[in-house]
Amino acid sequence: MNKDIVLIPGALATPKLWYQQEIFFQGSKQLHYVDVLNSDSIVEMAHRFISIAPKKFTLIGFSMGGISPSNYITISQIK
């Protein structure tokens, strides 16, 4: 299993949403967060995600944050 986990919260949510996961994975996984509050579109959010994404990772999205990974896959296939 990957050591890195990328977490994407839903619309209008902050990384604080993932507080319980921080506790659960403390010391065993490296958590990364995508900032959804400062993005004008899902495409912009996906580009922001690409900029922080480790080479291998597990991706977890909540609500609108779950839509963004499909855009990431599309953008990655174009690159």
Write the SSE topology.
Elements: E1 4-8, H1 19-25, E2 30-33, H2 42-52, E3 58-61, H3 64-78
Parallel strand pairs: 1-2, 1-3
Helix pairs in contact: 2-3
Key phrases:
AB_hydrolase_fold, about 15% strand, three-stranded parallel β-sheet, about 40% helix
- N-to-C series of helices and strands: EHEHEH
**Could you describe the largest sheet, including whether it forms a barrel?**
3 strands, parallel
Q: Quote the distance from N terminus to C terminus.
A: 25 Å
Tally of DSSP β-strands = 3
Relative helix content: 40-55%
Average pLDDT reading: 76
Computed Rg: 12 Å
Shape descriptor reads: globular
| Percent of sequence in beta strands | 15-25%
> What strand line-up does the widest sheet have?
2-1-3
Total count of helical runs of at least 4 residues? 3
- Alpha-beta classification: alpha/beta
- Work out the count of structural domains: 1
Low-confidence stretches: none
Task: Give an account of the 3D structure.
With 79 residues, the chain is of the alpha/beta class. It has one domain. Strand 1, helix 1 and strand 2 form a beta-alpha-beta unit.
Provide a quick synopsis of the model.
This protein has about 80 residues and is of the alpha/beta class.
